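We treat protein structure as text, and this decision shapes the records that our systems exchange. The tokens are whole numbers drawn from a learned vocabulary of local backbone shapes. Below, we set out a record of this kind in full and without editing:
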Amino acid sequence: MLQSASGGGAIALSKAIICEGGSVFGACYSQDFRSAEFACVEKISDLHRLKGSKYIPTEKKIFQDGEYKSVWPVVAEKLSSGRIVLFTGLGCDVAALKSYLSANHIDMQNLFTVDLICYGPALIDVHTQYIDSLERKYKSRITNFTVRHKAKGWIPKYILAEFENGRRFITPFDDTDYGLAFGIYTRESCFHCKFKGANHQADITLGDSWATTPGTAGYNPDGVSIIIVKTERGESLMEKIDSEEFAVFPADMRAAFERNTMYYTSRKKPDDYSRFCEDLRTEGLHRAIVNHFGLLRYYTRGIRRMIPSPIKRVIKAILRR
């Protein structure tokens, strides 16, 4: 669970499929950690490749037989051979896969799909520039990277980067240029996503169960998944989970949706979106973020947790003027 982004729901479902001889498709980082792509896993020992959130768009390709291929025909080939397949991706990924399979008359009887409650992935240049900056700072290649490291449990999330030279970098995600950019900017299309609410195309939707707090049933400080079953196929997939390894509790869906608004809505496009994208391209990530927040507001964000509450209130009052 500590390597999973939340409560390990995706891994529990993946194990169930692999135990039945199936194939699991999900996102992993590229070798240089500058992009994300799909991987096909057929052994439980290889599931570590799919663990953890990738806050960037996943390229629709997969490395197989020594070369990169489009992921959709590879999924189709597995299904056509009679293999059970679990595909996990964003709502748009699941919709694109189903559209491809339907257009090519591929039988989807053995296909199970899971999509994620999606906030909208980070702009890819935000991610690549951040990776570049870390490798420059530590003068070494990154060998492991995650934006959801559980340094102090499920919350808050941390960035963890490990390097070839043995050094490690750990810092709260929300206090980084990456975290600040991710909280505001995403792809243009994600501000009006078509795959929200009743338009989720997957059998199951997964996310963080933010409504599960200390004292509520099923709470775990290392993370809890919310599992929203949408179809009969989704129900049959849930029945395959090993109940001795993964505990399932009923959820208050009203509370769940109140704390997971991205299930049914897209975030709003910021007024300075075009300027940020231009600054990101011409001046770089750090300057683009400082330009958005303003110098004083940017540099007071990281110190607020370390100062007494009365002084915090004074700072907030100054920033609001």
Confidence is low (pLDDT under 50) at residues 1-6, 303-309. The first strand starts at residue 23 and ends at 29. The chain is about 35% helix and 20% strand.
